[in-house]
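re: ur question from earlier - yeah i can do the single chain one, its not a big deal. heres the input i used so u can compare w yours
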Amino acid sequence: MSFAATPIFLLMAYLTYFQLPPLCAVPGSFGFLSTMWLMYAIMGVVHSGPWFLLAWSLLKRTRSKQRQLRQGTCPEPSES
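and the output i got, formated as tokens:
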């Protein structure tokens, strides 16, 4: 479930940014800060922790496998 938040928030940011009539704009002199797309983009970044952890663990696994292959401690996969 934690992996679902980031793509949903980024999709919502994309859709609200390219929405023709801005339905969720706050009147005032805040400029682009008064729109909802910025809030959705920030929420997407805040909730992206599980994606970074997944990418980091995959990167570590790949690097350790490459190191084992260089040192000769890991048998190479045989073709069937």
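The chain has one domain: 5-71. not sure if urs matches, ping me
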